[in-house]
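hey can u check if this looks right to u? its 228 residues, i copy pasted from the old doc so theres a chance i mangled smth
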Amino acid sequence: MKAEDLFAYVYGLLASPEYVTHFSEELTNPGPRIPITKDVKLFETIAKVGRHLIWLHTYGERFVPKGKKTGTIPHGMARCIRGISESDYPERYSYDVAKRALIIGDGRFAPVSKEAFDFSVSGFKVVQSWLAYRMKEGAGKKSSLLDKIRPERWTAEMTQELLELLWVLEETIDMYPQLAKLLDQVVESETFNALELPQPEDEERKPPQADDEEVGDPKQISATLTTE
């Protein structure tokens, strides 16, 4: 087993909302609790699902499947039904539940599910936050003059970025039932006890440190400055 396989397995389990529900009591103490199944086939299935999710959530940059081009993701259902005017930068957005439409200024995107519009990670509403920071005024604190630098118009690139975000969320939500089922199977299966796994050495417990070559050796920098 490679480190990537374990990472994908963990990602596949943590991606399910049922994980927090199932382990709510255990999670009162900081740090995730990862049940590692002894069922090889189940482990491989979850790792495969985790790889797919990582591919989606990195917008096609990691764990790229064979035959797929890096940096591309599958198109979902959402489409730009009416483009956003480049001459009238949007000041607000709204969601039409009945028509399953996302309205941005004079533009419209559909179909967009309520689940995708309300999708949140640790209370952070992904789509709504993405939009809030891209409205005319822009969300967030204004602590620097740099914060006043804003886009002058809504571009085609911004429309494409929004569509890709919606497509990623669509497929993620569609996978939730499968993720919940796999988590249940893990809980019901025989899992490893922590003491059954290799114990890390003291040296391995230390936080990683950057090499001098990566950050620049202070002595070398000092010598260079002195010479000049």
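Residues 217-228 have pLDDT under 50 and may be disordered.
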